[in-house]
């Protein structure tokens, strides 16, 4: 909240009352500061630039320490981001510094997708914060903030203009992170060339609509120095961790046959300006801008993507609960519909299959009915034949009996006749 | 106590070989906070006539309630109201927007059941406002109107806490920082005050009331001071709008025939302790505890209620660490899995039933086949039988016929011979 908040409240009718003595709330800033110091600070820097532009060396020089890392080769197949976190302490101030390096940036033949992994990385940190913020049980006050607070963009010291890769990348990054462009290895450019180079770069950035980070000029105590520094952007830096004896002091410098480039000499390069701006004056502002501007933008886009929106100012104020409930109901409704559909489909299938099987059953029964009928017919035929046979047998029997009877009669008669004959014969004799 | 758990990111300690300059960060923070200005909301609760408004005026050395802006005590209330007054005060370049929330009518009725409800409603509504502002898609500056501290005024009976006191504190101790005060302490002698304080603390512990606790610091000096303050709890205060002269000095005090009870005299009352603690040393901590503990409690309860609608509560315990959106996502996935399982099950049941039916069909087909076979065989057997019978019959018939023929032949032969014989025979 800016001082405009206070002014607004005063305008709204919050009356100002005079105090009749020392109350003591002027210690509030100290209370706040003490708490922050106790908690410790954290700062995350992203270094974007081609391999070999001296990114790691500059970090080492800025923070007066040797950070991890081997110099990388040019053979990386894609752009990866390597991050390292360090705990630094200066007097009573503890700083958790995370340095993220782009490895392999600018080394590929086709660099169209180079910016993608960088954007993805930045978004991932935002997403992590957003998720934490949206949790039901959250611990934001002890959350280790990994969002990138400052992006140092290393420009190759060609002396001509920005490379198209630089323009494309910076354009993609300017709405996500505070970009501070710097001219790397600027000991390769002469003073006059440097002035022209800076002008060219600035104009190209403006004409392409790239928003770089402006040091804030709204706070009177630092407005002046910040606005001066703004005009020196991009900073032309030289980094070195080697020390050279100059006079009776050891200074950080790069030794050439034709002279020694002193890192901390403001005539030689803008290193001191960079350090002043980045660390000593505006570190807190960089963190604030990241949180209130870049993160808010990300959050807004993400929530809108998911279908959330604020109700218009005339109706009831936005209720998170209502939106969640509405979304949830919609969601549950969808799921239930799907469930119903699936059930219906199954019912349908069951019906069909049942019909099929019934058909088969019917066919089977038909088949057997037919067979049965055939069988009945056969049986009938058989019966008839049987009857036929029986009839024949009966007829035969009758015939037989009749014949036998006849025979008997004949025999009897024959017997009689024979007897008669015999008698006759006998009588004859 | 705010806990600081270990973060999961591995970090390497590094020593600096020279001055970098980030030790200036605290100054940057200082600068920015002054520019932003500060806010603080203080709530005072207690029965009428306990000197709440006077104390506020004394604390902030101003006439918050004056003729133009009369305090709530001037107005007679029938029911408990919750009123807020907002003022802007400046000191040493620091601007503070102070909101005083008063509760006139509290405890004044004959039946005071639920007189704490308007207070709770107020506190919750401020948390709700903040939650809504925080949850907007387009977030602008979020003014913090949450109640940071609640001063609860205990009447100086000298005996102990009243049931209303206990009830109120129990209901509010997990919603807001409660600091109990003994009001109008100039009616108690030091000894009575000591006993009263002990009694109150005992009862507070008995009822497990969580009053605001001072956090321990790393500084031993501060810790000693804090322990001293803790021993004096609850603070016995006296307030005054009137400035009197004592020993040539102008002090705020209450003039009695027997002397002046000085507000800012540490031996007369604990007012200075209260002011130092509330304003000069712990104002920020009160805000932090409100934000990190009380507000988070409110928020998690509110959001848990939203996402756990209709969900079986035994499942929700582990789900509170997710955001509601992640929750919905997970529910969606769960549902998809459930559907898949259901589908698989239904499929299985379906298959099984089909198999059953088919099997039955097959069985009945086999049965019918078998029966048909049997009948066929039966029929065939019968046919065979018939054939056999016929054969036998035919044979018999043939035999008989042959026999008959033979007989016939014999007869014929016989008759022939008889004829012959007759012809022969008859001669002699």
TrEMBL record, chain A:
Residues 321-413 form a coiled coil. InterPro entries: G_SEPTIN_dom, P-loop_NTPase, Septin. Pfam families: Septin. The keyword DNA-binding does not apply. The keyword Coiled coil applies. Residues 39-305 form the Septin-type G domain. It comes from the Eukaryota. Keywords: Coiled coil, GTP-binding, Nucleotide-binding. GO terms for molecular function: GTP binding. Belongs to the TRAFAC class TrmE-Era-EngA-EngB-Septin-like GTPase superfamily. Septin GTPase family. This is Septin. The lineage of its organism: Eukaryota, Metazoa, Chordata, Craniata, Vertebrata. The gene is septin6.
TrEMBL record, chain B:
Keywords: Cell cycle, Cell division, Cell projection, Centromere, Chromosome, Cilium, Coiled coil, Cytoplasm, Cytoskeleton, GTP-binding, Kinetochore, Mitosis, Nucleotide-binding. It is found in: Chromosome, Centromere, Kinetochore; Cleavage furrow; Cytoplasm, Cytoskeleton, Cilium axoneme; Cytoplasm, Cytoskeleton, Spindle. Residues 325-410 form a coiled coil. Transmembrane segments: none annotated. It holds the Pfam family Septin. GO terms for cellular component: axoneme; cleavage furrow; kinetochore; midbody; septin complex; spindle. SUPFAM superfamilies: P-loop containing nucleoside triphosphate hydrolases. PROSITE patterns: G_SEPTIN. One of its GO terms (biological process) is cell division. InterPro entries: G_SEPTIN_dom (IPR030379), P-loop_NTPase (IPR027417), Septin (IPR016491), Septin7 (IPR008115). One of its GO terms (molecular function) is GTP binding. Residues 36-305 form the Septin-type G domain. Belongs to the TRAFAC class TrmE-Era-EngA-EngB-Septin-like GTPase superfamily. Septin GTPase family. This is Septin.
């Amino acid at each position: 909240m800016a001082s405009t908040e206070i002014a607004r409240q005063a305008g709204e009718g919050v009356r100002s009352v005079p105090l009749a003595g020392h109350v003591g709330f002027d210690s509030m800033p100290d209370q706040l500061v003490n708490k922050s110091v106790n908690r410790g600070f954290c700062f995350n820097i992203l270094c974007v630039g081609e391999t070999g532009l001296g990114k790691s060396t500059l970090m080492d020089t800025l923070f007066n320490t040797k950070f991890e890392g081997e110099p990388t080769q040019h053979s990386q197949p894609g752009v990866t981001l390597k991050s390292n976190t360090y705990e630094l302490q200066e007097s009573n101030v503890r700083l958790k510094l995370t340095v993220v390096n782009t490895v392999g940036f600018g080394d590929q033949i086709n660099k169209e997708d180079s910016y993608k992994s960088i954007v993805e990385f930045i978004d991932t940190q935002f997403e992590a914060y957003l998720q934490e913020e949206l949790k039901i049980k959250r611990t934001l006050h002890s959350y280790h903030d990994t969002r990138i607070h400052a992006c140092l963009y290393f420009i190759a010291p060609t002396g001509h203009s920005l490379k198209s890769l630089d323009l494309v990348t910076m354009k993609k990054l300017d709405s996500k992170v505070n970009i501070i462009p710097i001219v790397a290895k600027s000991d390769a450019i002469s003073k006059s060339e440097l002035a022209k180079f800076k002008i060219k770069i600035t104009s190209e950035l403006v004409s392409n609509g790239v928003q770089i980070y402006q040091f804030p000029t709204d706070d009177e105590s630092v407005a002046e120095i910040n606005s001066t520094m703004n005009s020196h952007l991009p900073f032309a830096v030289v980094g070195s961790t080697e020390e050279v004896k100059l006079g009776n002091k050891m200074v950080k410098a790069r030794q050439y046959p034709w002279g020694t480039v002193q890192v901390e000499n403001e005539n030689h390069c803008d290193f001191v300006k960079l350090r002043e701006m980045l660390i000593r004056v505006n570190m807190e502002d960089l963190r604030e801008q990241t949180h209130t501007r870049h993160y808010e933008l990300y959050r807004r886009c993400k929530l809108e993507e998911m279908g959330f929106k604020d109700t218009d100012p005339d109706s009831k104020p936005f209720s998170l609960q209502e939106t969640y409930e509405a979304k949830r109901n919609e969601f549950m409704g969808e799921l239930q519909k799907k469930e119903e559909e699936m059930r219906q489909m199954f019912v349908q299938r069951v019906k069909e299959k049942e019909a099929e099987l019934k058909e088969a059953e019917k066919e089977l029964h038909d088949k057997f009915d037919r067979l049965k009928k055939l069988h009945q017919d056969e049986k009938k035929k058989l019966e008839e034949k049987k009857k036929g046979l029986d009839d024949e047998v009966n007829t035969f029997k009758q015939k037989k009996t009749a014949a036998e009877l006849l025979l008997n009669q004949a025999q009897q008669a024959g017997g009689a006749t024979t007897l008669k004959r015999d008698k006759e014969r006998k009588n004859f004799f | 106590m705010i806990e600081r758990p270990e973060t999961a990111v591995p970090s390497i300690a590094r020593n600096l070989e020279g001055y970098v300059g980030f030790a200036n960060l605290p100054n940057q923070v200082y600068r920015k906070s002054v520019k932003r200005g500060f806010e603080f909301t203080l709530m005072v609760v207690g029965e009428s006539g306990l000197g709440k408004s006077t104390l506020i005026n004394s604390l902030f050395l101003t006439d918050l309630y004056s003729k133009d802006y009369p305090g709530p005590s001037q107005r007679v209330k029938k029911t408990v109201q919750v009123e807020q007054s907002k003022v802007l005060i400046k000191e040493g370049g620091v601007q503070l927007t102070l909101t005083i929330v008063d509760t006139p009518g509290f405890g004044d009725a004959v039946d005071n059941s639920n007189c704490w409800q308007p207070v709770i409603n107020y506190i919750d509504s401020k948390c709700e406002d903040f939650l809504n502002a925080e949850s907007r898609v387009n977030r602008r500056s979020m003014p913090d109107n949450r109640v940071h501290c609640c001063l609860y005024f205990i009447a100086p009976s000298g005996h102990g806490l009243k049931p209303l006191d206990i009830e109120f504190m129990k209901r509010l101790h997990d919603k807001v920082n409660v600091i109990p005060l003994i009001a109008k302490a100039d009616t108690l002698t030091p000894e009575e005050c000591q006993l009263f304080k002990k009694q109150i603390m005992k009862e507070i512990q008995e009822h497990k009331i969580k009053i605001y606790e001072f956090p321990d610091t790393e500084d031993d000096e501060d810790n000693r001071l804090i322990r001293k303050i803790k021993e004096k709890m609850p603070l016995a205060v006296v307030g005054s709008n009137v400035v009197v002269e004592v020993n040539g000095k102008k002090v705020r005090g209450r003039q009695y025939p027997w002397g002046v009870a000085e507000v800012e005299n540490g031996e007369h009352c604990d007012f200075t302790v209260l002011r130092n603690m509330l304003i000069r040393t712990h104002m920020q901590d009160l805000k932090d505890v409100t934000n990190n503990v009380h507000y988070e409690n409110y928020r998690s309860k509110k959001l848990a209620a939203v996402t756990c609608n209709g969900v079986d509560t035994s499942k929700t315990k582990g789900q509170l660490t997710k955001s509601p959106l992640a929750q919905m996502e997970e529910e969606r996935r769960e549902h998809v899995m459930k559907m898949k399982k259901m589908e698989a099950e239904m499929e299985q049941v379906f298959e099984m039933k089909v198999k059953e039916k088919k099997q039955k069909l097959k069985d009945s087909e086999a049965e019918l086949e078998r029966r048909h076979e049997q009948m066929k065989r039966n029929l065939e057997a019968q046919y065979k039988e018939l054939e056999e019978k016929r054969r036998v019959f035919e044979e018999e018939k043939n035999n008989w016929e042959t026999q008959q023929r033979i007989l016939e032949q014999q007869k014929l032969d016989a008759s022939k011979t008889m004829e012959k014989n007759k012809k022969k025979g008859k001669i002699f």
